[in-house]
Amino acid sequence: MTRTRLPQLGLVLVLLLAICAVGLIQVVAETTGAATPQLLDLFRRTPTAAGLRAYETDLEQNSWCGNRIRVATQLAAFVTFRDLGAKALIGRDGWLFYRPGLEYVLEPCDGLAEAAAAIVAFRDALAERGIKLLVVPAPEKPSIYPERLGLFAQGLKKPMATHTTRLIETLRNNGVECTDLFSTFAGASGKPLYLVQDTHWAPGGMRLAAETVARRLAELGWVSPGQAVYDLKPVNLLRQGDIVEMVQNPAIAERFEPEPIVCEQVIDAEQTPYKDAAESPVLVLGDSFLRIYERDEPGAAGFVAHLARELRMPLASIINDGGGSTLVRQELYRKPELLKGKRVVVWEFAERDIRFGVEGWQRVPLPE
């Protein structure tokens, strides 16, 4: 072997050692933690394309070396360039934005016709059973506060809801009742309607949405006020925004202080937090915009509870995070008892779901 080939051979050996070291480190880390080496899963799975993809995904998510390199790289990008990665964007004054929501607002949207067709079909199916439908697209934060995106966005007018406005117009032309929260939010003043570090509305924005929907139901004459009496109980919270959590980097999350929030929990005459009633004539369908404050801390302080207070009656609800477009209707199909005695369905979904909804906009039949 000539001397000129020795450096090349040494480089090849170093590269091979580096490649093998990652696997060896992973096995040592797993066995040290009393876990079964993930390599064995390869022999336990059925050798199919789906099985191999699942194995590859597990390797990516549980890689000891990969996770530590990713955390360090993300932190360096954040410290140097204020970059939060593929899912998040830092705007002005510390405001955080979810990139898919921003992409929906700023980029072309080709899902409007599909969404409109599914909504009209759902309205028609409900109408055959004598049930009314009120559609409530929930605005994305960049639609209402585009000027918070950064210096380049200071001249943008608000709200930016071109795609959603077109959908609402299409639905109304087809006789579907819609609540336009964009116009309502644009005319609001005072505290911000959305959380600074979160994709969702602040308690004030949520309550304004509930009041707007209740007022529209009354104007349509679809719901008569009930006899229930509800009161409000202030609750102070500290909330780590979901956008911070999406970054999946504890070192970055530590640099964001939890946001102080004052919620208003809905309570009955016995001081008991609000609870749904399956037999209610009103069914509410929606996603995480309904879950926040309602199903998570403090509970009974979200959209459903406040809408119930406005209508003076308990409601029935189906809530599915990220599933406002199709998954909530699929869940309704599996729960036929929830349609018994219903007169009105209120259907909320985040406007980004018009383009990015989980499972798209499928035609889902009503249960028998």
In short:
The chain is of the alpha/beta class.
Structural features, described:
With 368 residues, this protein is α/β, with parallel strands linked by helices. The chain folds into 2 domains: 13-62, no CATH class; 90-356, no CATH class. The chain is built from 16 helices and 9 strands. A 5-stranded parallel β-sheet has the order 4-3-9-7-8. A hairpin with a 5-residue loop joins β1 (88-90) and β2 (96-98). α6 (112-127) packs parallel to α8 (162-173) and α10 packs parallel to α14. The protein is globular and about 85 Å long.
Task: Output the keywords.
globular, 5-stranded parallel beta sheet, 368 residues, alpha/beta
SSE layout:
Blueprint: H1 5-32, H2 41-44, H3 49-62, H4 64-81, E1 88-90, E2 96-98, H5 99-106, H6 112-127, E3 132-138, H7 141-144, H8 162-173, E4 177-178, H9 181-186, H10 203-220, E5 231-239, H11 242-246, H12 250-253, E6 259-267, E7 282-286, H13 288-291, H14 303-311, E8 316-319, H15 327-333, E9 344-350, H16 353-356
Parallel strand pairs: 3-4, 3-9, 7-8, 7-9
Antiparallel strand pairs: 1-2, 5-6
Strand content of the residues, in percent? Answer: 5-15%
Q: Briefly note the structural class of the backbone.
A: alpha/beta
**Biggest sheet, in brief?**
5 strands, parallel
The rounded distance between the terminal residues' Cα atoms is 80 Å
> Helical region count?
16
Outline type: globular
Q: Share of helix among residues? A: 40-55%
User: Based on DSSP secondary structure assignment, what is the total number of beta strands?
Assistant: 9
